[in-house]
Design a protein that fits this description.
The complex is a heterotrimer.
Chain A lengths: L2 H6 L9 H12 L4 H11 L3 H10 L11 E6 L2 H5 L2 H12 L12 E6 L11 E3 L2 E3 L4 H18 L3 H8 L1
Parallel strand pairs in A: 1-2
Antiparallel strand pairs in A: 1-3, 3-4
Helix pairs in contact in A: 2-3, 3-4, 6-7
Chain B lengths: L9 H17 L30 H8 L28 H13 L1 H6 L8 E8 L5 E6 L4 H8 L9 E6 L5 E4 L9 H6 L8 E6 L4 H15 L5 H17 L10 H22 L3 H4 L3 H9 L1 H10 L13 E3 L9 H5 L5 E2 L7 E2 L9 H5 L5 E3 L1
Parallel strand pairs in B: 1-5
Antiparallel strand pairs in B: 1-2, 3-4, 3-5, 6-9, 7-8
Helix pairs in contact in B: 7-8, 7-11, 8-9, 9-11, 9-12, 11-12
Chain C lengths: L1 E4 L2 E4 L6 H7 L23 E4 L6 E2 L10 E3 L3 H16 L15 H8 L23 E3 L9 H9 L5 E4 L6 E4 L15 H5 L5 E3 L3 H8 L5 E6 L7 H4 L9 H10 L4 E4 H22 L5 E2 L4 H10 L13 H17 L6 E7 L3 H6 L5 E2 L2 E2 L3 E4 H10 L21 H4 L6 H15 L17 E8 L2 E9 L1 H12 L8 E5 L20 H18 L9 H11 L5 H7 L15
Parallel strand pairs in C: 1-5, 10-11, 10-13, 12-19, 13-16, 18-19
Antiparallel strand pairs in C: 1-2, 3-4, 3-5, 6-9, 7-8, 14-15, 17-18
Helix pairs in contact in C: 9-11, 9-15
Classes of the chains: A alpha+beta, B alpha+beta, C alpha/beta.
């Protein structure tokens, strides 16, 4: 869905549409691009600075594309007590990126959230739609390797590429 | 790979909410004329966008209005001037969830549960180092011990109960001897904690209380709104003081030792100013995790400040990692995992950790297949 | 309501805040984020006071007084808290007061002094951000920002621009333009109202003092200076002299002492602007528009129209501002008369304005690659130079500006205050419409600091309907009303970007208590009005020097020559990548 189509779903121009609009745009685009912010501002008649101010305030919004496997680490209290800091450190070490960044190959992005809402299963990380409970730093390598394997499986074979080029 | 929770997207969760509303409407509980009473009631769901401070009512109002979730001074209170400038009543979901029970039981039966000052029941989210985790509902005034030991089954075998953190980031940490306290609004306040969000995080001897306090200050740094000076700058300094307590010799600057010794005194003074002058409840209670741990676990703070020792072996810089030569088979895994390149040794011969380079991250400990790494 | 404040009984008014009561009763409570006339923000907490029976301290700026309250504004607890708050702010602030342009006028520095902060008490140091020098008008230094939010509110609530806002949250909060970018990529119009409200040096003008000093030291250059009408009525304040007086003749003397070879009065080119603008107005009325015509002497307003409402550009007068008219005349007529090479003239202006710095740098204000005005100083920068030279302006013997460009009517002086351009223009438009030179000199309806002022004047069978917008936000309100068809007959509108006009400009002296900003502006306006009341030459078209310029050089108003020198063709500002919304 394009930016225009999302905006068209919100004919109302009052400011309380701002956050729902940003949420829907992020859902569609994966992140909030500059044109998205600009068009939301125009649509609601708000200065771009206000939209940017709101978007950067809330943790939900991202301003860069996510990796194919967004890795979300819960840093809630229960997860912390059960060692999520070590899990995060292991992820940073394996992926060689800081939270908020995406790996160069576009495969992984790393995010930290205040609470994923599954305190009973701590420590929890989410990789895309898959939730992993009771994660230890030792498991991190395997989880990432699994993603890499899936990515490799999905990659077009040499034959397919040649066929497409022909 | 563990996949205990089902795949769930925020969207589908929203769909349930919408389904519940449709069902309520179909039953005549929502709409222009609810249950033929002539009264109108509509429910609209607004999804938040992730900001802890929006638990503060005026911040929540701003969030719904499409603004940054920063609180504003009260008065005027929302009941006079709230959402879109109109009088507004704000309640937690849990309060609303009590209504069906209240209607079903009648007010007398509901009020019979709980204590004189705290009526009814309360849902707690039991988590941490405990055998049974999950949501539990108990009558107000139950002793904390019952929730932790009977309902939660206590800490896992082989471990010793140390503390329970109650009430979320604004709450406090209570030690074993305080477990007999009844869980109600008044009693918890007397020991520096609060009912708050109803979070109950149980910790055993593996948790460091200085680390827990540091964790919460870091949390407030990230999740506060940044508007008022005491909360924004004050908690930053509280965090810095706690950081200095966990700092090893290597990273300590000359003035650091003094800082560390003064830290405990400064913590208390700063905590009072933050409580006295913060704009909203988040800031006013931001000190609780620090002051409650300091109150009940002072010895642990002192071990950090004066002896450079973390009794729970959590604060990385205070730990000394060594490789036991007899157990090391020279597999080189630890050297490859070490982010500080502090491990040397050649293949198939015992490795060695250079203490000056070690950051104490513990990567080698988790990586070593032969259990040759010792921490002290 | 009876209350007790600092052990004294006081009568409180219904709905009054503790701060209002305390100030009325003469008890000083410090504030950092409070802005008179706007809703309290409650961010800085410096104003906390102790009230009997209250658990925590109460913010005086937002808490209403209640009957029977017992208030202590300086209890030990309140003082200790304030001191700690100042220490906390200083912990996250550079220790460079000695190098800071706001040293001496910094509210944080004052508080540190008053509360006896003697050392860095807290361990966490400065959270560093990068300096934004992208704007030709101002510098944004987020390291020095204490996040009081006054600039955000001035930009949005006072000016209606909203170029900046709080971004991110928690400990990482920073005030910045959209996309975390720089001011030159934002809708900032350079008005500098944010500078005037900033309690610290986080916002300041982009100083051109060094360039001016270098030019003064260059024997090759003829350095000339013009000063705007609102400068001589405010410079005294920046030099710690009483406000509300005109120091024009002493200012001229001071400028000569500083080494400026020729000292001119922007009032001259204000008269010239009137000649051109009145002629343009009459032509538009006679030829059918586009009307209403808007004045174009306020560069912030011009910039705003270009980027936010380009469809209004045809309604904007094509006249350059007085600063730029003077600049153009200096490097043409004056250079010719004095037989000077325009390339060897360094033309400086002193303005109550930061947007003028940006205006002087615009490409249409240069000919043959040479800017008409080479450097623009604010009142504050000039005062720095005067201080540096140890000049006591009040002791100087009055001097006259250099002729002919130092000659001005008192109508030209009126430009410095809201309604002044309109009043001056009406005096000249009258003669153009009626053929008689007996205009109403004062139009009371245009006086005062109301947001929008209207007047209707009958002149030679023409009913002239005019309006004055005092501040950009009020101009926006007026534009909304015009768009809604509320003022179909309106012909001429004066717009001043800053509240009160140039007397309230972003280059004016900074006063630590923003409380009296309105009164101070009024004092400056009154000084300008006094000059006009006592003036002998009160009509721009009677300025003999202006007439000489026309006779010798330009021909007549709206001639080809004056179009070349004094008018511009306006184009919208478009930014393909990020629309400046």
């Amino acid at each position: 869905m394009s930016i225009e189509q999302v905006l068209a779903r919100h004919p109302g121009r009052s400011r309380d549409h701002l956050i729902p609009l940003l949420q829907e745009l992020q859902q569609e685009l994966g992140f909030l691009s500059r044109p998205a912010i600009r068009q939301v501002a125009e649509h609601l008649g708000l200065p771009a600075s206000k939209v940017w101010g709101v978007a950067t305030f809330y943790n939900q919004f991202r301003f860069q594309p996510r990796g194919r496997f967004p890795v979300v680490v819960c840093r809630g209290t229960a997860c912390h007590v059960k060692g999520s800091a070590a899990v995060l450190a292991a992820l940073q070490h394996e992926l060689k990126i800081e939270p908020g960044a995406t790996t160069r190959d576009g495969l992984f992005s790393l995010e930290v959230v205040a609470c994923i809402g599954a305190c009973g299963l701590a420590p929890v990380i989410a990789v895309g739609d898959d939730y992993h409970a009771g994660v230890t730093p030792q498991q991190v390598g395997r989880i990432l390797a699994d993603c890499r394997r899936r990515a490799a499986e999905d990659a077009p074979t040499k034959a397919a590429v040649e066929e497409a080029l022909a | 790979m563990l996949r205990r929770t089902p795949r769930r997207k925020p969207r589908s969760r929203r769909r349930w909410h919408e389904r519940a509303i449709t069902q309520a409407r179909d039953c005549g509980l929502l709409g222009a004329d609810i249950l033929g009473s002539g009264r109108r009631l509509e429910v609209k769901i607004k999804q938040g966008a992730g900001a802890f401070v929006c638990g503060e009512e005026t911040a929540l109002i701003h969030s719904i209005e499409g603004q940054r979730g920063m609180p504003r001074p009260r008065p005027p209170y929302p009941v006079t001037r709230g959402l879109f400038g109109r009088p507004t009543v704000i309640n937690n979901v849990e309060t609303m969830a009590n209504l069906p029970g209240l209607f079903r039981m009648g007010p007398e039966a509901f009020a019979a549960l709980g204590t004189a000052g705290s009526k009814g029941t309360k849902v707690f989210a039991l988590s941490g180092q405990i055998s049974r985790t999950g949501l539990v509902e108990v009558a107000m005034g139950e002793p904390l011990r019952r929730i932790v030991e009977e309902i939660g089954g206590g800490v896992p075998e082989g471990h010793v109960f140390k503390a329970v953190q109650i009430g979320g980031p604004s709450g406090g940490c209570l030690p074993g001897p305080q477990l007999d306290i009844p869980v109600d609004y008044e009693s918890l306040k007397t020991v520096g904690a609060m009912v708050g969000s109803g979070g109950l995080v149980v910790m055993d001897e593996r948790a460091c209380m200085v680390d827990v306090a540091r964790y919460f200050m870091d949390f407030i740094q990230r999740e506060g709104c940044g508007k008022c000076i005491p909360c924004r700058e004050g908690t930053r300094q509280l965090l810095a003081i706690l950081d200095s307590l966990g700092r090893g010799r290597r990273r300590e600057e000359p003035a650091g030792a003094l800082e560390r010794f003064q830290g405990l005194i400064s913590l208390e003074r700063l905590a009072r100013v933050i409580q006295d002058s913060s704009l909203c409840g988040l800031g006013q209670s931001a000190r609780n995790p620090v002051l409650s741990t300091l109150r009940w676990f002072r010895a642990e703070y002192e071990a950090h400040a004066y002896d450079r020792r973390c009794p729970a072996k959590v604060c990385p810089e205070l730990l000394l990692y060594e490789i036991e030569e007899d157990l090391c088979n020279g597999c080189t895994v630890c050297a490859r995992k070490c982010p500080a390149e502090a491990i040397v040794g050649s293949r198939k011969s015992p490795h060695h950790i250079i203490a000056e380079k070690c950051r104490g991250c513990g990567s080698c400990l988790t990586a070593c297949p032969s259990g040759a790494i010792k921490v002290s | 309501m009876q209350v007790t404040i600092n052990n004294r009984p006081a009568e409180a008014r219904e709905g009054e805040t503790i701060l209002e009561l305390a100030r009325r009763e003469g008890h000083a409570i410090p504030t950092l984020c409070h802005m008179k006339g706007l809703l309290p923000s409650g961010a800085c907490r410096i104003c906390v006071v102790e009230v009997e029976g209250q658990k925590g301290l109460l913010p005086a700026c937002s808490h209403p007084v209640q009957d029977g309250m017992v208030i202590q504004t300086h209890s030990a607890r309140a003082v200790e808290t304030r001191k700690t708050l100042v220490e906390l702010l200083l912990a996250n602030h550079p220790d460079d007061c000695l190098y800071c342009v706001r040293s001496g006028t910094c509210e944080l520095q004052d508080l540190a002094r008053a509360y006896g902060v003697r050392r860095r008490r807290w361990p966490a140091g400065l959270r560093h951000h990068s300096l934004d020098v992208s704007s030709p008008a101002l510098v944004r230094d987020p390291d020095k920002c204490i996040l009081c939010g006054k600039c955000v509110r001035a930009c949005e609530e006072v000016m209606g621009v909203a170029a900046i806002d709080f971004t991110h949250g928690g400990s990482w909060t920073v005030i910045a333009p959209a996309y975390g970018g720089d001011l030159n990529r934002s809708p900032c119009i350079g008005c500098g109202q944010c500078i005037v409200v900033c309690p610290t040096g986080a916002l300041r003008e982009r100083s051109q003092l060094d360039r001016v000093c270098a030019a003064l030291a260059d024997p090759e250059l003829t350095v000339v200076i013009q000063h705007a009408p609102a400068v001589s009525v405010s410079i005294a304040e920046e030099l710690d002299l009483p406000g509300g007086q005109d120091f024009n003749p002493q200012l001229v003397a001071a400028l000569r002492l500083l080494g400026f070879e020729y000292v001119f009065d922007t009032g001259f080119s204000a008269d010239l602007t009137i000649m051109e603008e009145a002629a343009e107005l009459v032509r538009r009325i006679k030829l059918g528009g586009p009307l209403p015509m808007f004045t174009s002497c306020s560069p912030g307003w011009v910039r705003w129209v270009e980027q936010a409402r380009p469809e209004l550009l045809p309604n904007l007068s094509t006249c350059k501002s007085p600063q730029q008219m003077m600049g153009a005349v200096i490097k043409s007529w004056f250079a010719q008369r004095k037989n000077l090479d325009p390339a060897k003239i360094f033309s400086v202006s002193v303005m109550p304005c930061t947007a003028k710095k940006a205006e002087a740098g615009r490409p249409e204000h240069a000919r043959e690659g040479r800017a008409d005005v080479d450097a623009v100083l604010t009142v504050r920068e000039l005062a720095r130079l005067i201080r540096q030279r140890g000049i006591h302006i009040q002791e100087l013997k009055p001097e006259h500006a250099d002729l002919p460009l130092g000659m001005r009517s008192t109508a030209g002086r009126l430009f410095g205050g809201t309604g002044g351009v309109m009043e001056a223009a009406l005096r000249t438009a009258w003669i153009l419409l009626t053929g008689e030179d007996s205009p109403p000199l004062r139009v009371a309806a245009l006086h005062g600091q109301d947001g929008v002022k209207f007047a209707t004047i009958e002149a030679g069978g023409v009913k002239l309907q005019v309006a004055v917008a005092n501040g950009l936000r009020h101009a926006q309100t007026l534009l909304g009303e015009i768009a809604a068809g509320k003022h179909p007959e309106l012909q001429f509108v004066e717009v001043m970007t800053c509240p009160g006009g140039c007397v309230g400009g972003g280059g004016q002296p900074i006063h630590k208590d923003g409380e009296h900003a309105l009164e101070r502006r009024q004092e400056r306006i009154n000084a300008l009005h006094r000059i006009d009341d006592e003036g002998m030459l009160r009509r721009s078209h009677r300025n003999w020097a202006v007439n000489e310029l026309y006779r010798e050089f330009l021909g007549e108003p709206l001639s080809e020559k004056s179009h070349e020198l004094l008018h511009v063709h306006r184009t919208p500002v478009l930014d393909e990548e990020d629309a400046l919304v």
